């Protein structure tokens, strides 16, 4: 995926579901969710074990289905579990799916792209945001 495509995804997305969100500050999903909230995104953490709680000011959803409406699904799951999340994102009408660093599923990517979704894998939106020198907030773009 080109830098222009990554930039466009990050600057046109508004609502993000973070699947596998953690309440533990030392976990990458906690930091990424907080970063995205700080950039102006409406973030819905998704974690059945934390459902009903609040993380970064947002109610934690028990499932991706309960997190909608959404533009992007940011996935913090093992590669072998990512495909099911991608399939649900397709079913729910997400515009893009982002698999975090170390998470790859080429077959799921093919399904997502065939359904018209943008698909990013093995990357982190925080790293890409900083690398591309994007503005402090999406509403400043």
UniProtKB/TrEMBL annotation:
Superkingdom of this protein's organism: Bacteria
Listed Pfam families: CoA_binding_2
Domain CoA-binding per the UniProt entry, residue ranges: 10-103
InterPro entries on file: CoA-bd, NAD(P)-bd_dom_sf
Name the UniProt record assigns to this protein: CoA-binding protein
């Amino acid at each position: 995926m080109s830098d222009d495509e990554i930039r466009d995804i990050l600057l046109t997305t508004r609502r993000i579901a973070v699947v596998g969100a953690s309440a533990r500050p030392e976990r990458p999903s906690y930091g990424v969710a907080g970063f995205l909230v700080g950039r102006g995104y409406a973030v819905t953490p998704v974690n059945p074990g934390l459902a009903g709680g609040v993380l970064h000011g947002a109610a934690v959803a028990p499932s991706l289905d309960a997190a909608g409406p959404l533009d992007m699904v940011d996935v913090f799951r093992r590669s072998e579990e990512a495909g099911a999340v991608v399939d649900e994102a397709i079913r729910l009408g997400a515009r893009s799916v982002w698999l975090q660093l170390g998470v790859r599923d080429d077959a799921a990517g093919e399904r997502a792209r065939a359904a018209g979704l943008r698909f990013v894998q093995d990357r982190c939106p925080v790293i890409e945001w900083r690398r591309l020198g994007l503005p402090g907030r999406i509403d400043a773009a």
